[in-house]
Structures are given as structure tokens and as C-alpha cells.
Design goal:
- This protein is mainly α.
- The protein is 75% helix and 3% strand.
- The protein has four helices and two strands.
- The two termini are 32 Å apart.
- 0% of the residues are buried.
């Protein structure tokens, strides 16, 4: 029965791991699709900016002012670029990776130094904490207060869940370490008894 129980547990664990990986791949695919859409929008805006500049050049009319239009387009591009950066960070989070701030190489999240350029990595705050901090320090209109509060509560819940998960992993690791030490100690005692016949059982 023990054999079948262990087999069942292993099958369940394998299923959970597979389901987790599949879920992460699906999320990453959605994020990449969204990034593609945003990059297409930025590309269209670049084209629109170029068109406006060229039209002004062709008409050779100094009274045509396109500065305001260009500033609006550039602001939109900045907003979309920030959104893309946020989505890229989420993709890295799913793979438990981060980006080197110097060479932008994708590296392991716990790496102290970049494997590509050797840059020392700083311990950045998780994305949720950064967003939460910005939200708490940003003033919003009264009609947006409820919406902001909902987002804050969701972020706090997400941060707490991650901390709890991290603490559970540490506890499990410590328990496994203690168990291994106990087993090692028992094994050493057994070896000592077997190798020394004078020790009474």
C-alpha cells in the first residue's frame, strides 16, 4: 500500500508541477501578445509623427505648428513604453528571472552579479511593492478613490500571499534540513555500533 500511496503522491505532485508550468506559459503568452499589440501601436505613432513632419516640410508653410501634436504623440508613446516595461517585468517574474540594469541581459532572480557583463545586482523591490508605494503617494480625484482602494487591497493581498509562500518554502527547507541532520546522525550511530562490537546495544 505504501508503494501505491507514494506513486499516487508523485503523480499528484507531477500533475501540480505540470499545471503550474502550463498556467505560467499561458500567462506569458497573453503578456507577450499584449506587448506585441502595444509595440504595433507605438510603430503606428512613429509613422504618424513622421507623416506630420514630412507634410510640414512639403508644404513649406511656417504658420503650420505641429509641436502640440508631436508632444501629444510622444506622451502617448511614453505611456505605452512604460506599460510594455511593466509587462516585460511580469514575464520575467513568471520565469523567476530579472533583467540586468546595465546590459539588459535576462538573468536569474537571485544572481548577485550579471553573468553577461559582471555588473553587481541590487536587491530591487518587487513590482507589486513599487506600484503600491506609487499608488499610496499619488493624489487622485474623489471619484477615483474607490478604484484606487480596490487596487491597493489587491496588491496588498498579492504581496502577503507571496510573503506567506516564501515563508512556507523557508519552513519546509528548514524542516527538510533538520530531518536530513537527524537521519545523518542516526546513520552515524548505526555505523559506529556496527564498526565497534564493544558498544552495547
Amino acid at each position: 500500500m505504501d508503494f501505491f500511496d507514494k506513486l499516487g503522491k508523485k503523480a499528484t505532485e507531477a500533475y501540480k508541477v505540470t499545471a503550474d508550468k502550463t498556467g505560467k506559459i499561458a500567462k506569458e503568452t497573453k503578456l507577450k501578445f499584449k506587448i506585441g499589440e502595444l509595440r504595433t501601436q507605438i510603430s503606428d505613432m512613429y509613422e504618424e509623427i513622421g507623416k506630420k513632419v514630412y507634410e510640414k516640410h512639403v508644404r513649406e508653410e511656417n504658420d503650420i505648428c505641429i509641436k502640440k501634436d508631436l508632444e501629444e504623440q510622444c506622451t502617448k508613446i511614453d505611456v505605452l513604453s512604460d506599460e510594455i516595461d511593466g509587462l516585460l517585468k511580469q514575464c520575467l517574474e513568471l520565469k523567476n528571472k530579472k533583467q540586468c540594469p546595465k546590459c539588459y541581459k535576462e538573468i536569474e532572480k537571485d544572481d548577485k552579479f550579471c553573468s553577461n557583463c559582471g555588473e553587481k545586482q541590487t536587491n530591487d523591490k518587487p513590482q507589486e511593492e513599487e506600484v503600491l508605494e506609487k499608488l499610496e503617494n499619488t493624489e487622485v480625484s474623489e471619484e477615483k478613490q474607490d478604484e484606487r482602494q480596490i487596487v491597493i487591497e489587491e496588491l496588498e493581498q498579492s504581496i502577503n500571499e507571496k510573503e506567506e509562500k516564501s515563508n512556507n518554502k523557508k519552513d519546509k527547507k528548514n524542516k527538510n534540513k533538520e530531518k536530513n541532520n537527524e537521519e545523518k546522525s542516526e546513520l552515524e550511530k548505526t555505523v559506529e555500533v556496527e564498526s565497534n562490537p564493544n558498544i552495547e546495544e
